[in-house]
Amino acid sequence: xxxxxxxxxxxxxxxxxxxxxxxxxxxxxxxxxxxxxxxxxxxxxxxxxxxxxxxxxxxxxxxxxxxxxxxxxxxxxxxxxxxxxxxxxxxxxxxxxxxxxxxxxxxxxxxxxxxxxxxxxxxxxxxxxxxxxxxxxxxxxxxxxxxxxxxxxxxxxxxxxxxxxxxxxxxxxxxxxxxxxxxxxxxxxxxxxxxxxxxxxxxxxxxxxxxxxxxxxxxxxxxxxxxxxxxxxxxxxxxxxxxxxxxxxxxxxxxxxxxxxxxxxxxxxxxxxxxxxxxxxxxxxxxxxxxxxxxxxxxxxxxxxxxxxxxxxxxxxxxxxxxxxxxxxxxxxxxxxxxx
Length: 340
Prior knowledge:
The chain is α/β, with parallel strands linked by helices. The protein contains 13 helices and 12 strands.
C-alpha cells in the first residue's frame, strides 16, 4: 500500500446487481465477521443498497460511512464508501434493468480506480447480471472483459474457477462449441498453463501440479478420433515441461476430475468452458469461486450469478461469495509480501 497500510489487506467490495442476491450475500458475510477477519473491507456502493441487503438477510451489522476513498481507507472495521447513486426503495427485486447494470459495473470501475491509485489491494465483487450491464452500454462477453477494460489491461488474462483446493482454467471460454477446435493453439494452451502456474503461486501453492485436458473422447484415441491432441495439445505440454512447469496430460475429460478431486493435481487446464464448469458446479455449486487471473491486482467473485429467482427472499447461500472474499484477501496478503 502506498497511502495507508493496515495490518490486513484493504479489499474493495461491491454489492453486485441490486436486484439480485448480491446485497444479501455481502450482508450475511459481514454479519458473520468474515469481512473484517480476513481483510480491511471497503464496500463501494450505495449505503441504502447495503441496508436493503441487511433487511433481506435479517441481520444487523456495525459499519462506518465514508464519502471519499481517502477517508475510507483511514478507518478500521467495516466501511461503506457511499456512492449515493442507487435508491434502494426503487429496486425491483429479480428484474432486469439497465440502471442496475450501470450501478453494478461502475462500482467495479471505482474499485479498479482505487487499486490503481494505491488505496485497494484486491477486489471482490458481488454477482452481476451481464445482460443488464450490456443494456447499460458496457461491452463484455464475461466479467473479466469488463474488469480488464476498467484496468486498461491488454495482456493475457482468463477466468479461473476454484472449489476448495481444486482450480480450473480454460483455453477458450464464451464462444460457440463449433468454434472451439479452430481457436485452440499451442500458444494459447501454453499461455493458460503459465498463467495458472503464476496464479497458484500467488495463492500460496509453491509448486503447482497442473493437469491438461484432452479435447476429444478418450484423448483422441491415438489420432483416430480427432487430431487436436497430437497436433496442438501434446506439443504445448512438451513446451510447458521444458520451461519447468509441473504439467501432465492430455487426460480424457471424463476421468480428468477424478485425478483432481483425489488430490493428484492442483489445477486443470481445460479446452472449453463446460468441460471444466460442469464438474466444478456439480461438485460444489454453492461454494465455487471465480478468479480473474492475469490482472494487475487480485480480483475474485462467486462462480454463480444473480439468482433472480430467489432474490429478496433471504434464502441465498453466501458460501461461494464468502470463499471468494477470503481468497482475494489471501492473494492480496501474499502479493504484499512479494512486493516487500
